[in-house]
């Protein structure tokens, strides 16, 4: 596969690892309880949103700053990246998330660590309700990403990074009361690994993955269809033909390089 011979491909994989490490470190770190009393939802929501906005600005032109297996899955469903790239992105994201949580665990006093901001269902919320909430949270998030990253738009209003960050913040402001606002399987997986607590953990995979897939189908096939033939989509998935933007914001340098290599 030609992608494996591309330096930009490996830079993108490292960027996903690096970005997810920092996302989890700062997001979970802002979610810890350092004093008695209720956790400030706005603080946590802004921390996750600002962390992602910063990372989109930092590595968006390198990898697309997915930082989330559900987002990568959404781009895969939309035939905007190859199966190989999607698999490597997800592996890098999971490893980066665990590494970020491990660093946070090591620098945090034992009395403050708690469950390391593990996602849990609110009392009275069933697993069915929680899964539905996670689907809707991730759906709106992926729709925002697809719309802001879309290279077919003739112009944009505002900042891509801030738009994506605010979308994530919105999801947290609502979702924290129900599920803790997973929206990202890697974010949920990291504290579960370190605390060895996988109670209802599947909710934080099934919900975001379904939500991401639905967001991709809704945007790419209904709201703003991409006119690609079945053969074109299959060639992108196989990695024999580069996609238009490989899940990156408009104006990034990698797609041009990839297209040149494929000629």
Automatic annotation (TrEMBL):
It is found in: Cell junction; Cell membrane. One of its GO terms (biological process) is homotypic cell-cell adhesion. The chain crosses the membrane at residues 12-35, 41-62, 83-107, 127-148, 160-179, 202-224. It catalyses: H2O(in) = H2O(out). It comes from the Eukaryota. Residues 238-263 are annotated as: Disordered. One of its GO terms (cellular component) is anchoring junction. PANTHER family: AQUAPORIN TRANSPORTER, LENS FIBER MAJOR INTRINSIC PROTEIN. This is Lens fiber major intrinsic protein.
């Amino acid at each position: 596969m030609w992608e494996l011979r591309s330096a930009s491909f490996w830079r993108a994989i490292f960027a996903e690892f690096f970005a997810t490490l920092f996302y989890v470190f700062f997001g979970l770190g802002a979610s810890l309880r350092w004093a008695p009393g209720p956790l400030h939802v706005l603080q946590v929501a802004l921390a996750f949103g600002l962390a992602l906005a910063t990372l989109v600005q930092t590595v968006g032109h390198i990898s697309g700053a997915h930082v989330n297996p559900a987002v990568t899955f959404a781009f895969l469903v939309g035939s905007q990246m190859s199966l190989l790239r999607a698999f490597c992105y997800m592996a890098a994201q999971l490893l980066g998330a665990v590494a970020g949580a491990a660093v946070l665990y090591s620098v945090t006093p034992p009395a403050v660590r708690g469950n390391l901001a593990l996602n849990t269902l609110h009392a009275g919320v069933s697993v069915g309700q929680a899964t539905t909430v996670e689907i809707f949270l991730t759906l709106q998030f992926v729709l925002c990403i697809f719309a802001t990253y879309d290279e077919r738009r003739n112009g944009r209003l505002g900042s891509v990074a801030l738009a994506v960050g605010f979308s994530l913040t919105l999801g947290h402001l609502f979702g924290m009361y129900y599920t803790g606002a997973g929206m990202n399987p890697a974010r949920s997986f990291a504290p579960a690994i370190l605390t060895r607590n996988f109670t209802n953990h599947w909710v934080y995979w099934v919900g975001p993955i379904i939500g991401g897939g639905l967001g991709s189908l809704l945007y790419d096939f209904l709201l703003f269809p991409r006119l690609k033939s079945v053969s074109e989509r299959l060639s992108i998935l196989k990695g024999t033909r580069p996609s238009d933007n490989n899940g990156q914001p408009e104006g990034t340098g990698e797609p041009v390089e990839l297209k040149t290599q494929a000629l």
